[in-house]
Amino acid sequence: MAGYTESELAKDLENQEYKFGFVTDIESDTVPIGLNEDIIRLISEKKEEPEWLLEYRLKAFSIWKEMTEPEWAHVHYQKPDFQAIAYYSAPKQTKKYESWDDVDPEMKETMKKLGISMEEQQRLTGVAVDFVMDSVSVATSFKEKLGELGVIFCSFSDAVQNHPELVRKYMGSVVPMTDNFYAALNAAVFTDGSFCYIPKGVRCPMELSTYFRINAGGTGQFERTLVVADEGSYVSYLEGCTAPQRDENQLHAAVVELIAMDHAEIKYSTVQNWYPGDKEGKGGIFNFVTKRGMCDSHAKISWTQVETGSAVTWKYPSCILKGDYSIGEFYSVAVTNNYQQADTGTKMIHLGKHTKSTIISKGISAGKSQNSYRGLVQINKGAHHARNFSQCDSLLMTDECGAHTFPYIECKNPTAKIEHEATTSKIGEDQLFYCMQRGISEEKAISLIVNGYCKEVLNQLPMEFAVEAQKLLAISLEGSVG
Amino acid sequence: MIKIENLHASIDGKEILKGLNLEVKAGEIHAIMGPNGAGKSTLASVLAGREDYEVTAGSIDFDGTDLLELSTEDRAREGLFLAFQYPVEIPGVSNINFLRTALNEIREYKGQAQISAKEFMAMVREKSAIVELDSKLASRAVNEGFSGGEKKRNEIFQMAMLEPKLAVLDETDSGLDIDALRIVANGVNTLKSDQNATIVITHYQRLLDYIIPDFVHVLYDGRIVMTGTKELALELEEKGYDWIKESIDA
Asked: Which residues in chain B touch residue A435, judged by CB atoms under 8 angstroms apart?
């Protein structure tokens, strides 16, 4: 009998292999392991950075040295040895690519495996991709069209070279180097990332997309992303990640800063599928990310994330609602399996009047994983008539996993309206049986039910990304059934 | 169509079906009646392949196939449909998506091509009219926020879409007002052909005013203890089940 019990489901989930675990064999240019001032100077020199940026890095390093790793999150892991990491790794190449044809065929192959071949992207989807492979951007498309509108979309290093005034003005303005341990570390050693600037009143005509990928073994990746939307502009930004299979834990500590000026809107979507470790919980990426956006008046920032990967995730995309009538949104699906641990959520800081925030969080726990939602809604004194709605749902796939919700609410203004809803449910035998009685296989039934459960979040993603997200959910939860 | 012989089934070690025999031929409608706890819903669950139930003895031949060897989904794909007593809600999954997935899985099983979107939508329009199901309900999430009557109509709508060989209606009349009952019954009658068969499990004779059975069986203590025509249903309605219990237990 091919009946399907939850314990069988649990077993199947444990047995799945990471589908994107492959290593591209490209010679890498890696600096010696360890972290000290000399290494930082070396990174800065390799990247031909201006003096002010080197000073910024060194200052961050001196602050970081005095800090300790935070321990409040509901995660347990072997702390990384920061002296055992190589802080810079770039594919070795003497000259930059003139055109797409010049790009290393093997690198193209990597992109193909990721399902994001540039040709296809360009032709079919109208997505401009800034592909970051081990810290150095190798290809950028649609630059001309964006250029006509005055949109700047380039690697962070290019922005430092070509738009230093913008970088200098906004870098660290939302996430200061003193913010937290990992943000300070990132400020000291960040290698590359993306930079995006949308001029006043411009509606960016295409989704901007960057695929990050950690490739060389033992290389921590410290990305830095800065998106600046000038008054009345609009941009939708996509970020997706996969990484090859590794035995030792890899550290990832990114910083993302968003700035939405008056009446501007930024939609920032993430699909994250980093190597989560094997079924015994060995290996996998440590993902300690600081993401934050600042809204001026009438501005709006939406964070949408689908998190399926990483061994340990520590991530709270946040909005500072500084301007009156500004809006912050957070839509999240976090899947944990085997021994994965996720402590993720958001912070909505209401400063301006009539500010509004929405939080929709969907956690799915399988295997022996631990999945926590941690959110803060803070209404400050001057935030008259602020409103928040939070909904945190947890779906349990097995008896051995855990779901936790830590909602913090701080309200200092009596005119605020705050609503919080939370549910925890187990995937229903009845639902599975109902689907199967209609001829639907257990695998597809789980996929249907889970996608239905996450629908409110998936609906926020741009079409092509939503498809990818559904595939990831399928891979993460029922890929090996049968 | 289906031949059940000496079926014994238990749940949590407790035997519910104790040697049930039943044969249904194509083109026939059979009603199964009986008091609470007789094993009516157990029979429906065992036929559909619910794994909580253990079949300890007996056989079920379904149109030449050993039904008990098939998984739940393969039984459905072979043409067995169960209209649930308590249809399940699946939040966030539209009826349309659900049915298209089901239909395509069945087609794939039979080696047929996927149904085109156009063809599918035409079918939805045609079949939803049979049970007077508002087309809005077809695009809503499966049974979510449906009234009791809408859920039962949705079951018959799904049955119309999937075109099963054998439909088992488990207490489909429970919780229905007289108008909904007529609509549901009308749907079942419309779908009747000489190629398919229906087993109607019910408590009350009422439904059988609308769905006229060829045979009425009384299920008691895990066995079919009496078989007759629709007049038997009327007799049961009038006299209750006690006289049967007494004659069996004696």
From this structure: 90, 98, 102
Q: What is the DSSP letter of A466?
A: H
Residue that wins the pLDDT comparison between A89 and B130 = B130
Q: Does B93 touch chain A (CB under 8 A)?
A: yes
> How confident is the prediction for chain A on average, in pLDDT?
79
**Chain A residues contacting B via beta carbons under 8 Å:** 1-5, 428, 430-431, 433-442, 444, 448-449, 451-456
Residue-wise over A285-315: b if at least 16 C-beta within 10 A, else e?
bbbbbbbbbbbbbbbbbbbbbbbbbbbbbbb
Q: Which amino acid is at B149?
A: G
Partner residues linked to A402 by β-bridges: A370
Q: What whole-number distance in Å separates Cα of residue A401 and Cα of residue A378? A: 30
What is the ipTM, given to two decimal places?
A: 0.96
Q: Cα(A368)–Cα(B143) distance, rounded to whole angstroms?
A: 32
Centroid of chain to Cα B109? 22
Q: How far apart are CA A61 and CA A222, in angstroms?
A: 14
What tokens were used for A430? 């009845």
Whole-number Å distance between alpha carbons of A369 and A334: 11
The token duo for A73 is 């999150």
Residue A255 C-alpha from the chain's centroid: 10
Q: Which two tokens stand for residue A310?
A: 């990483």
A452 neighbourhood in chain B, CB within 8 Å? 90-93, 141
Alpha helical stretches, state H, A267-379: none
Tokens of A47: 């990247």
Interface test with B, best of A425, A440, A450 (most B CBs within 10 A): A440
State whether residue B74 sits within 8 Å of chain A by CB. yes
Strands A318-321 and B29-33: unpaired
Nearest-angstrom CA–CA distance, A288 and A274: 12
**Residue A213: pLDDT above 70?**
no
Q: What is the pLDDT of residues A301-327, one digit of tens each?
A: 999 998 887 788 888 999 999 999 999
pTM above 0.95, yes or no: no
Q: What are phi and psi of A431, to 5 degrees?
A: -65, -45
Sign of the CA dihedral with B147 first, then B152, B154, and B155 last: positive
Place of tokens 């895990």: B222
CA distances A154 to A114, A150, B11, B106, B229, Å, are 21, 12, 64, 49, 80
The single residue listed with the structure tokens 């913090």 is A408
Instruction: Say how many CB pairs under 8 Å bridge A and B.
Output: 87
